[in-house]
Amino acid sequence: MKKLFTTLSNIWKIEDLRVRITNTLLFLLIYRVGSYIVLPGVNAASLHAGQNKEGLVGLLNMFAGGSFSRSSIFALGVMPYISASIVLQLLGIAVPHFIKLQKEGESGRNKLNQYTRYLTIVITAAQAIGYLKSQVSADAMLISNPAFTVLNVFVLTAGTLFVMWLGEKITDKGIGNGISLIIMTGIIAELPSAFVVEFQSRTNGAGGLITFIVEIVALLGVVMFTILIVQGTRKIAVQYAKRIVGNKQYGGVRQYIPLKVNAAGVMPIIFAQALMFIPATIAQFFPNAAANGILISLSNYNSWEHNVVFAILIILFTYFYTAITVNPTQMSDDMKKNGGFIPGVKPGKTTADYIDAVISKITLPGSVFLAIVAIIPALASLVGVSSLFARFFGGTSLIILVGVVLDTLQQVESHLLMRHYDGLMKTGRVKGRSAIPTAAGETPPVI
Fold first, then answer.
1. What gap in Å lies between CA 28 and CA 22, rounded to an integer?
2. What is the pLDDT of residues 419-432, one digit of tens each?
3. CA dist., res. 226 & res. 42, Å (int)
4. Within this chain, domains 1-174 and 190-420 share the same CATH topology
5. Beta strands 248-251 and 233-240: pairing type?
6. Where are the alpha helices (DSSP H) in 174-303?
7. What is the per-residue pLDDT across 186-223, written as a single tens digit (0 to 9) for each?
8. What is the C-alpha separation between 153 and 158, in angstroms, rounded?
9. Which among 138, 160, 288, 321 could disulfide-bond with 264, CB atoms 3.0 to 4.6 Å apart, if both were Cys?
10. pTM for this structure?
11. Per CATH, which fold does 190-420 belong to?
């Protein structure tokens, strides 16, 4: 406890760190206040009466911190921006124009930032129309159509752009990655209500207090397991050639290339979830089809068919995303230019093949572990955990929480060590995620 108070005191003594943490909290407070401002022309009482927080709606509502179900001006949150960043990142792999922009340094990044913002506006406008039609019933509208739709498409688009601006300000003036912190804040905001609901259901006879304590212990175990996945690395030793210039020696040291066990982060789960929404969509268009039973089973996240297909897709997407984001040939070329080599391995193509083989070996357990974490919420629901609380047992939400917290703590510790204070831990150091840059030049949440 004394160590904790000493660390907090050291953080408060550093003016730059104190200002950054204060700015971050103020920006997040603005976001949380805005999440309770209802769209113009919406009757909040009529809206909440028929809200559904299950399935996809519940997942989106959790990422938006409850704004989605409240029909807030921030209902769409930063998800359109994340979608635009992913699209630009994929275009940067396949389209020559975007590949060229990625290699142009600062000017290229500025262009990609502009494209990302423009695409965010388009995606937000399209999603706003779908949101108003599907989530706001006619009896909750105080303004007649089409004025209601036109007005609130502009409001929702402006809300998403404002949240995106808040995220950029947190990154510049605060601590940590702004977009990631906004998503994490939305997820954490749903945790107290889920905790209370589960506690009440258990203490009122469905298992008792002992079962609830077992659930909490299991949740802590899953969190520790997720931390192992996020932090796991395979180090490859690299020796640099020794050069003597005058009386000084350069190089001649051994360093390591840390290859992440889960280099793809949360992206495979996001891609797999997007594909798993397709059966539900097809079932709505063809309700009398002979294969409708299979489609319904694939749409039910508690069914074994859904979870088996979901796990297989995650494993495949983990290999795919790792292959397009980690380039062994480029790593080998950079190493060769700087006079480095892997002991016992010839420079050039042999080194690239060696790195590729290591990545392939560590990606298999990483993808399997990621698939297990992704289906744990469904397993928790099958053993009686409420669906609201089960979402925190794994999946996208837990990986985002663990990754963002570790990344933010690592930045705080860097500020402490830079000013010759002790770190956050007595032994060892907090290691943040090595996030994959998006097309916009930022680190994704998830991502």
1. 10
2. 766 656 555 556 65
3. 40
4. yes
5. unpaired
6. 178-203, 208-231, 267-276, 278-285, 292-299
7. 888 888 888 888 888 888 766 778 888 888 898 898 88
8. 8
9. 321
10. 0.77
11. Preprotein translocase SecY subunit (1.10.3370)
